[in-house]
Amino acid sequence: MVDFKLTPEQLAIQRSVREFAEKEIKAIAMERDQMTDHENIFPVEAFKKSFGIGIHDATIPKKYGGQGLDCLTHVLIWEEMAAADAGFCVSYQGHFLALEHACGPRATEEQRETFLRALTTEEGGLAAYALTEPNVGPCWLLLQQDFIQETTIERDGDDYVLNGVKNFCTNGGSPITKWYVIWARGDKDKVGLESCRTCFVWADSPGFTVPKSENKMGQRLSKNAQLYLDNVRVPKEHIIGEPGGMGMDGDFGQRLITANSWILLGALCLGLARSAYEEALAYAKRRIIAGKPAIQHQLIGAKLADMYWNIEAVRAYVWKAANYFDTNPVPDMKLAQGAKVMGSDLAVKVTDEALQIHGGYGYTKDALVEKLYRDAKVTQIYECPNELLRVTTAGMLELGM
Fold this sequence. Notes:
This protein is α+β, with helices and mostly antiparallel strands. The chain has helices at residues 8-33, 44-52, 71-84, 86-103, 109-120, 140-143, 250-286, 298-327, 333-358, 368-377, 386-398; strands spanning 126-130, 152-156, 159-170, 177-185, 196-202, 208-213, 224-235, 239-240, 288-289, 292-293. Strands 1-4-5-8 form a 4-stranded mixed beta sheet.
């Protein structure tokens, strides 16, 4: 049973991140969202300030200079960040996915000391995770397809050599990204996970270039870029595990997807929905229609009531999923997938209703709800589209899982 009473430490972290997010993220989000030079929207200084309060090392074990926070506490952090700006928050998605490789059982102690310490010492920094390619997306993880990575990694003496192209890499090419986890095909005679290798690559490696950033509809404060790998040399000490070294099999693989994708994205969506609800509530209180505040008109008041109830319900669900993750050796994949699906559907619904309450003003670039509406849509798409997650959960229910 979930205890909904947060500890004093959790409340202090939540309060600290909320104050930071209001002052350093929300204050700049609208202006940066509307910049026409999309290559330079990424808020470098705000991220550097976030390192100062430890957002970047929240899940890194204390042994390596991090905080070692549990999933529920991490969920609290994500909701507060996303309430200020979902793009800023999702930048930490790629970061923590990459961290799981350094924290996970297939990384060596030397790799942990090298790559985790690179983020927890001196000025801090971000990591990035490069899986998606022009013809290969993450959905095969659920479909169990015999996919083929087109990026290759081949042995050359004591090193390995990477060649290929990666798409939509979060934090790709940012000036504060220090290293990447990159997927590649290491065995040409095999397909699927057995053909794959993963490795750590420093951002300044020769042959590693970032030709462009994506110009997106929403979540514009995150940087998603294409990567070119042209004979990038990787020392054998930077290879993660054995072939299939992503480790998607067994407990580690499940925890990787669960903690850093679906549950946390549910928290991101909560923050986004909460921001839209609060904006719509404030507007409905001050907007006068037919001689009285808009909230006193039943249809508008009912919309706000539904928003409130649904946000509270999804928050309870996300917290349950996080609590289950923290207290069980193997996560419940159904709970985790539901956190992402329910959260993202909530974000789209609430931002749509918030814009509707604002009327024509909500459709202008001056309105925060216009930005939130754009930010919400992609949550139903990235990290596996909701349609696919519904199908896979149905399959688990059929099998009694």
